[in-house]
Write a structure and sequence with these properties.
This protein has 62 residues and is mostly helical. It has one domain. The chain has three helices and no strands. It has helices at residues 9-24, 35-46, 54-61. The protein is flat.
Amino acid sequence: MNKIKDITINDLNQIIEEKVIELLGDPDSGLQLKEEFKAELERRLKKPSKKISHQEALKRFA
């Protein structure tokens, strides 16, 4: 049997999340995405990202 001292923080977070969903349910369950939202999401996914990594930000601005 595993002891609580043997689990990681990630394991504990996962257990808590599973229990909360089990008790409260998923509030988004059964909902549908609007077509406008889907289209915007697809457009953004196709567009090149303007994001830079943390390391690149440090190089540029530090």
